[in-house]
Amino acid sequence: MVKLSDVNSKLLKAHYAVRGKIVIRAQEMEEQGKKIIYCNIGNPQALRQKPLTFVRQILSLLEYPALMDQPGADKIFPADVIRRARMILEKNPAGTGAYTQSAGIPFIRKAIAGFIEGRDGIPADHNRILLTEGASKGVHTVFTLLTNKDNDGYMIPIPQYPLYSAAIELYGARRINYFLDEGNHWGLDGAELERSIEEAVKNGIDPVAIAVINPGNPTGAVLSRKNIGMVIRFAKKHGLAILADEVYQDNVYAEGLEFHSFAKVMHELGEKEVTLFSFHSVSKGFLGECGHRGGYMEIRNMPDDVYAEVIKLLSIGLCANVDGQLVTYLMAAPPQPGDESYELYAKEKGAILGDLKEKAGILGKGLNEIEGMSVDVPEGAMYAFVKFDLPHPKGVDPEAMTPAERHKYETARDSKYCLRLLEGTGICVVPGSGFGQRPGTLHFRTTFLPPKEDILELVGKMKKFHVSYVAKLLEA
Ligand SMILES: Cc1ncc(COP(=O)(O)O)c(C=O)c1O
Questions:
Q1: pLDDT (tens digit, 9 = 90+) per residue, 296-355?
Q2: CATH fold label, 8-49+347-475
Q3: Which of 7, 180, 247, 249 is the most buried (most CB within 10 A)?
């Protein structure tokens, strides 16, 4: 029998906080009949967000095309849905049960190039667009492609989405932390990037790429065009590739802010040397189709011989699942004004995004009113990264600890806080240490995806819990 000692040590070292111990405990409690408010993961449809009608109607016809010829089909499906399904079947006659090209179905890649051109007003090449099973698969592809030596390093934001820290461990690469500035709406600072790369190089690391998440997870921050330009210049100066994680591009709520893609800013800067990998997904935005595992990766500034290796790598996994490719197509080519489905589609989309914006405000405002807690009202994405203060037990002085001791102490504190919160209130959030945080600070990450009533309940329960938790620590 395979023993734990036989398991790949790189896998043993990897952590993925958003599905860790606290979630397992939440599931146990739920089985015992306790109500759990799951705020640990950005999984919209698990939290009662409805799928868009247009997407599901087309998928049903494509999974069972005979439906289109049934009497009465025209009463169930709008005419543009039937037209679109027929068009897709013509372009992909093998249907959903057949492997596709490794890069994905060609007409879908062309539609995505059109989507990027429409979004950014820049040219896009469908021969540099690859369909992936969610953004996660795209990120893994890049790590396989670029990790070559034991000292290859990836710059990742702190706090970060743990896909990046876990991939670094899995692929045997080195991690280069750059801290986002909590005091400045989690902004990205050029001096901090220089500090972190300088320290890494001093430690013998060879930096190969920088990952940027925009809008941010877990921070909810939206990067300015200027910030993005700064990262591109930084990458050029240090010979880095860029991984631009743009899965939350439709989730921008703050007035006056807008999403800028790395591809657009790079094009405007006339940058032709820095290799860019941009990721997008059907999991987030307003589709929330996490379970369909669809998405794409667009590559810029990559020679043909390297691109051929990317294709070879994808071909080793054959292709992305076809339903995921189809949902990605529908994300890139939604119904247009004049189409029979357009009105309902626009209404459903508007309701989902409007609701998220409202809930971001309720959560941010409510938590800020709790003494000892502070959070930036999320500008985008689906999360708030909430700072909280706890008194230290008598005789404990974190300043006197080594960095490793302090890290252990603080990780234990935010984890215990989140576990007690779960056990006391049924609210399931993720400890900040799973995403990384500056020494001396404690956080948790919560989504604002649950229904509005649950968010209001969460804020009320959180307040009571925090006050009593702090009081108990003071008594101890
Ligand atoms: C920043 C970020 N990137 C990537 C992903 C993975 O998404 P996908 O479902 O497309 O693999 C997530 C999921 O939460 C995320 O938050």
A1: 999 999 999 999 999 999 999 899 999 999 999 999 999 999 999 999 999 999 999 999
A2: Aspartate Aminotransferase, domain 1 (3.90.1150)
A3: 247
